[in-house]
From TrEMBL:
Keywords: DNA damage, DNA repair, Methyltransferase, Transferase. This is Cysteine methyltransferase. Residues 4-82 form the Methylated-DNA-[protein]-cysteine S-methyltransferase DNA binding domain. Signal peptide: none annotated. Pfam families: DNA_binding_1. GO terms for biological process: DNA repair; methylation. The keyword DNA damage applies. It comes from Hydrogenovibrio marinus. It catalyses: a 4-O-methyl-thymidine in DNA + L-cysteinyl-[protein] = a thymidine in DNA + S-methyl-L-cysteinyl-[protein]; a 6-O-methyl-2'-deoxyguanosine in DNA + L-cysteinyl-[protein] = S-methyl-L-cysteinyl-[protein] + a 2'-deoxyguanosine in DNA. One of its GO terms (molecular function) is methylated-DNA-[protein]-cysteine S-methyltransferase activity.
Length: 101
DNA sequence: CGGTTGACCAAGT
DNA sequence: GACTTGGCCAACC
């Protein structure tokens, strides 16, 4: 039985490059409402390069937090082609991915 | 095992 | 538009 955290990572790995998802989407995909627990899993994320934690944002398209600082999060997103402005994802709805299997 | 904390969310002020 | 409040639930001490 995988822990709650590991299931978050598995879902996150399904998010294609250039797209983003939300803490809520992940929690709901796991059948729970522990939005904050999802963020906690990312914060303690032991799979730093493997799991694309930077592709997870708030439900309104704002960046949310990041263990290495928001600036780093923006840089990584931009490196994947995701444009960010004023702490929010541009064309958020178009880049949003929540079709988890 | 109880209380605190948190990379959240929604609604109210 | 910014700030406060209440609620949710897993991890941590």
């Amino acid at each position: 039985m995988e822990s709650f955290d590991e299931r978050c990572y598995e879902l996150l790995k399904q998010v294609p490059k250039g797209k983003v998802t939300t803490y809520k989407a992940i929690a709901e995909a796991l059948g729970t409402k522990a939005y904050r627990a999802v963020g906690g899993a990312m914060n303690r994320n032991p799979y730093a390069p493997k799991v694309p934690c930077h592709r997870v944002v708030n439900v309104d398209g704002s960046l949310g937090g990041f263990a290495f600082g928001q600036a780093e999060k923006v840089a990584r997103l931009k490196a994947e082609g995701v444009e960010v402005e004023q702490g929010k994802i541009k064309a958020f709805k178009e880049r949003l991915y929540d079709a988890f299997q």
